[in-house]
Amino acid sequence: MKYQKTEVKLDNSLSFWKHFDKEERVLFYNPLNNELIIGAKRLKTFGQEENYNNYLYVFSSRTFFDSVKDQKWAEFGNETVAFEYYLVEKKGKQTLYYFEDLVEIENLKIKSNEHFYNISADDYEEWKELFANVYYEISSRKVNKVVISREVKIVCETLVNTESVLKNLLEKNQNSFIFAYFKNGKTFLGATPEILVQKEKDNIISYALAGTILRNDEDDELQKMMLLNDRKNRYEHQIVIDKIADVMKQYIRDVIIDEIKILTLKNLHHLQTRIYGKDNSTLSEWVTRLHPTPALGGNPAYKALEIIKKYEKHERGLYAAPIGIMDENGDGIFVAGIRSALICKNMVFAYTGGGIVDKSECEAEYIETNNKLKTIIESL
After folding, report:
1. Helix H or strand E encompassing 203
2. Which of 36, 140, 239, 326 is least surrounded by Cβ atoms within 10 Å, i.e. has the fewest?
3. CA distances in angstroms from 152 to 63, 167, 298, 374, listed in the order given
């Protein structure tokens, strides 16, 4: 049985998200084609080799590491799921897809709420210890890059209004992929600029994203040039390019590496390079091959992951992990779950990180993580 469809006219597509507030849900906005997909109510969970025929879209997520112990991440990730209902918004048109029973979606006014909150503690001393340990490992030539992260606990005075947070993320981060996954009373959401891998028929596309500078209202073009010519950022970026290209060359004869470009976001500029070729493997296979890139874990990956496990005191869960949407043909896109937070009632666990190389400075990297944290802070 295939999905049936009907056109709807909602003032805000988040009315659909709100309608299913007790059900498992996913939201995924793709800025490359200006398409918003929201799914609700789990319909089917897929095995590893199953195809997705007759299922409009499937949502797939993996935890950063193979397993997690922290209870707040329990039952999140490592699944591929189809939903009973989908709302798809593209080119100003909203289409409601339903598997069996049509539902009436109330046209709600989605407001931006201002949350009053406290950031629970200054974690710079903890960061200094983490940085020093990782820098020692880099200095001893065991690795040339390790991506370290912070878990920042934000306590709100009221329950977090996720519709408001999502509305703000969508409005303020138009060049980013916006994602949200609600399950068992908790929501993991964010606005990520980072594509892990994309598949369009036999076209496989990945992007190196590493190297960061703050935007400047007075002379933003100068900031771009500074980033493009900065030796430390270019070195960090090249590590990511080389690793992605090396993995792709194991399966693809002709791998093409584009020129390094600037990706501009609301608060930051990043170095970005597209790497692509042709292959008939599944998107899921490519996710396994590429995750984590040196932009998310480090290089060499196995050693960097050992170091992260040894020194980071929090669990990453879905942070920096693959999150994706695929159609029934298996085409789709996986992004990295960065610039993200896990929301549970009035608690926001926000995640932010940065790549450490031999020319990294502790305080500068900490400031960079605070700049990245603005994505979540501004959404509250």
Report:
1. strand 203-214
2. 140
3. 19, 22, 21, 12
Give yes or no: 310 in active site. Answer: no
CB 209 within 8 A of CB 263: yes
- pTM assigned to the model: 0.95
Residues 202-261 pLDDT 10s: 999 999 998 899 998 888 899 999 999 999 899 989 999 999 999 999 999 999 999 999
The residue assigned the tokens 């993996």 is 62
194 carries an active-site annotation: yes
Q: Which amino acid is at 202?
A: D
What are the start-end ranges of the H helices in the chain? 14-19, 124-139, 162-172, 220-228, 231-249, 283-290, 301-311, 362-379
Distance CA 214, CA 142 (A): 30
Exposed e or buried b per residue across 115-137, where buried means at least 16 C-beta atoms within 10 angstroms of its C-beta? bebeeeeebeeebeebbeebbeb
Joined tokens for residue 117: 């909150």
155, 154, 160, 152: which is closest to 112 by C-alpha?
Answer: 160
Contacting residues for 246 by C-beta, under 8 A, at least 6 apart: none
Domains and CATH numbers, the chain: 117-371 (3.60.120.10)
Closest CA to 309 of 62, 65, 61, 63: 65
Indicate which residue of 84, 145, 167, 368 is catalytic: 145
Length of the chain: 380
Choose, from 137, 151, 163, 194, the residue flagged as catalytic.
194
Token code pair at residue 97: 């897809």
